[in-house]
UniProtKB/TrEMBL annotation:
<dbReference type="GO" id="GO:0000978">
    <property type="term" value="F:RNA polymerase II cis-regulatory region sequence-specific DNA binding"/>
</dbReference>
<dbReference type="GO" id="GO:0000981">
    <property type="term" value="F:DNA-binding transcription factor activity, RNA polymerase II-specific"/>
</dbReference>
<dbReference type="Pfam" id="PF10401">
    <property type="entry name" value="IRF-3"/>
</dbReference>
<dbReference type="InterPro" id="IPR017855">
    <property type="entry name" value="SMAD-like_dom_sf"/>
</dbReference>
<dbReference type="GO" id="GO:0005634">
    <property type="term" value="C:nucleus"/>
</dbReference>
<protein>
    <submittedName>
        <fullName>Interferon regulatory factor 5</fullName>
    </submittedName>
</protein>
<dbReference type="InterPro" id="IPR008984">
    <property type="entry name" value="SMAD_FHA_dom_sf"/>
</dbReference>
<feature type="domain" description="Interferon regulatory factor-3">
    <location>
        <begin position="1"/>
        <end position="52"/>
    </location>
</feature>
<dbReference type="GO" id="GO:0002376">
    <property type="term" value="P:immune system process"/>
</dbReference>
<dbReference type="InterPro" id="IPR019471">
    <property type="entry name" value="Interferon_reg_factor-3"/>
</dbReference>
Length: 88
């Protein structure tokens, strides 16, 4: 992700995780032809990628938060802010 953010690679890192149930995998068949596949998309990974996609110009400090009780989402936003500051 850091190499992508710095422009050292043109391909964004993959963040989706695929699981196949009931069949051997990987094999010659594409995942679309499998009987049961599950795609897991970690939200934190997707948000980080979107934050750096096409050199977005928004600042992590500009995220408006109006949540009265801190929860896991607040902690994630704080971690993203810290990461953003480290990368700058």
């Amino acid at each position: 992700l850091i190499l992508f953010q710095k422009g050292q690679t043109t391909t964004p890192p993959p963040f989706e995780i695929f699981f196949c149930f009931g069949e051997e995998w990987p094999d010659q068949k594409p995942k679309e032809k499998k009987l049961i596949t599950v795609q897991v998309v970690p939200v934190a990974a997707r948000l980080l990628l979107e934050m750096f996609w096409c050199e977005l110009s928004w600042s992590a400090d500009s995220i408006p938060l109006q949540i009265s009780h801190p929860d896991l989402k607040d902690k994630m936003v704080e971690q993203f802010k810290e990461l953003h500051q480290l990368w700058q």
